[in-house]
Amino acid sequence: MSDSPAPAANTSPPADSGGTGPQAASADLNRQILSLAVPALGALVAEPLFVLIDSAMVGHLGAASLAGLSLASTLLTTIVGLFVFLAYATTATTARRFGAGNRVGGLQAGVDGAWLAGLLGLVAAVLLAVGAPWAVDVMGAEGPVADAAVTYLRASAPGLPGMLVVYAATGTLRGLLDTRTPFVVATAGAVGNVALNATLLYGVGMGIAGSGLGTAIAQTAMAVALLWPVVRAARAADVPLSPRAAGMRASLGSGAPLLVRTVSLRAAILATVWAATALGATALAAHQVVNSLWNFTAFALDALAIAAQALVGTALGRAEAERAARVSAEQAPASANPCPSRAAAGPAARRDPSSAPPPESTVPVPHDGPTVDAVLRRCLAWGVAAGAVIGVMLAGASPWLPYLFTSEAAVVVAARPALLVAATAMPLAGAVFLFDGVLMGAGDGRYLAWAQMATLVPYLPLAVLVARCWPTSGMAGLVWLWVAFAWVFMGVRALVTGLRARSDAWRH
Questions:
Q1: Distance in angstroms (rounded) separating the CA atoms of residues 155 and 428
Q2: What is the average per-residue pLDDT within 194-211?
Q3: Which pLDDT value is given to residue 49?
Q4: Can you give the pLDDT at residue 7?
């Protein structure tokens, strides 16, 4: 990444400048969306490789170690996932400030977010190391499985500060419209994790503890690699690198609503698993198949949402700069000279620093680039279209996809119709993820928190009814569960976020 923080969107020519027009501007916006979304997709896919790598290597240590890893990784990803607001909030803040030409403010937000992430990570690491036995006991594990889970959690706890700093630094780079650096770092981290785990598990003989420690080291190295371009840019702009209490409070304040949103979303996911469990072992296994495919395909849609988040934040900052410039021009006194210059102001004005324009780093300067409405419309079109393509592919492959996960005929039969329901809802999911990304890019976290909690009102009773075998039980009940989740839950999310996106409240 270059030391210059100027967003890539600001380097393109105006849509109506020589040789360009609406079609050229549209093609340019498409290129911007893809240039952000494709690397973001790579980074999103690279992260789950850590769990796959750990599972593949720990599996050779025995069933108890693998079961312990499964439990521990679920607890660890849940804890880390609660702090994903560090990426979302930092992306929105930095993108908006850079879009407005506020270089110093954008970098300062990134530095503050990194400090907040590091401190939260330290607290979480201590709590995890101390409370690991209690957390594992609550999950019902006993004997060798519980011992393996506690060992892995305590070995991986030192990596929590790095994991959270990765979120904050990634958010800063996305705000700078840079998704390539996180992709490269995530890929390198996954490769490095293989070498570390192999050395610590087998070479040193640390067992499952070596897997946790290897992941912790890899995540810490990723944090350093992602922070380096942010630190270089901050130094070039004379942004202080020391922690600021006010800045960290602001980062926490902007991220807290997104934490509420994440907890509410987790509640819906847990309720779905609980309802599937009540339908029986076969239905639960089939649900795991459908849910795994749903989550995997969501990566592509989430990558587009990340692009929307960064571009909307930049466009809003640019709009603020243009409004400030218009207000400044309207408030300036009329001059008799139609072409005023510094020379016309006289020597005194030229010598007086207060009469000179403030530095570019603190003054919003209008830039050419796509408008907020243009970004919203185009990203929504990409999201719905991508969802439609993914849905057709899932539906067409539904007779065979379950065999990738199981060879049991009953599970395959139960998964197929539920997978078809999930496939039909993919265009809707594309719209939901895009609306989420747009509102996050606008920093509209408070509304998202309330909206996500509101979606639980119609969905949780439906999940309870399905768990109570209404309107039917067993494998047929799984179809109704996915109708409730994919169409009712996601439909309400689309309604509340879509109506908000159509309004003007989030644009200010």
A1: 41
A2: 88
A3: 66
A4: 34
Q: What is the pLDDT of residues 416-453, one digit of tens each?
A: 999 999 999 999 999 999 999 899 888 899 999 999 99
Amino acid at 127: L
Quick check: 408 and 51 in contact, CB under 8 A? no
At residue 476, the 3 state secondary structure works out as helix
Beta-sheet strands, E only, within 151-204 = none
Is 57 within 8 Å of 197 (Cβ atoms)? yes
> Terminus-to-terminus CA distance in the chain, angstroms?
30
**What residue ranges do the domains of the chain occupy?**
20-243, 253-325+361-508
- Looking at the chain, the whole-number percentage of residues with pLDDT higher than 70 is 85
- For 420-435, the three-class secondary structure string (H helix, E strand, C coil) is HHHHHCHHHHHHHHHH
The rounded radius of gyration (Å) of the Cα atoms in the chain is: 25
Query: Is the predicted pLDDT of residue 333 greater than 70, yes or no?
Result: no
Q: How far apart are CA 227 and CA 232, in angstroms?
A: 9
Give the pLDDT of residue 421: 97
- Average pLDDT rounded to a whole number, residues 253-273: 87
Question: Cβ contacts of residue 28 below 8 Å, gap of 6+?
Answer: 12, 15, 370
Joined together, the tokens standing for residue 5 give: 């923080």
Q: Cis bond leading into 471, ω under 30°? A: yes
Helix (H/G/I), strand (E/B), else coil: 6: coil
CB atoms within 10 A of CB 325: 15
* pTM value surpassing 0.85: no
pLDDT score of 378 more than 80: yes
Res 508: pLDDT: 66
Contact 121, 162 (CB under 8 A): yes
Residue 347 has pLDDT above 50, yes or no: no
In contact, 210 and 197? CB cutoff 8 Å? yes
**Token code pair at residue 84:** 């994903």
Compute the average pLDDT of residues 448-460: 95
Q: How far does Cα 56 stand from its chain's mean position?
A: 26
- In this structure, what are the phi and psi dihedrals at residue 383, rounded to the nearest 5 degrees? -65, -45
| Torsion, Cα of 485, 491, 496, 501 (10° steps) | 120
Q: Answer whether 503's CB lies under 8 Å from 435's CB.
A: no
* Residue 414: burial class (beta carbons within 10 Å; 0-12, 13-18, 19+): buried
Q: What tokens does 418 get?
A: 């539920």
- Cα separation, 78 vs 113, in Å, equals 21
A 10 A CB-CB count for 123 gives 12
Cα torsion angle, 448, 495, 263, 209, sign:
negative
Question: For position 17, what pLDDT does the model report?
Answer: 38
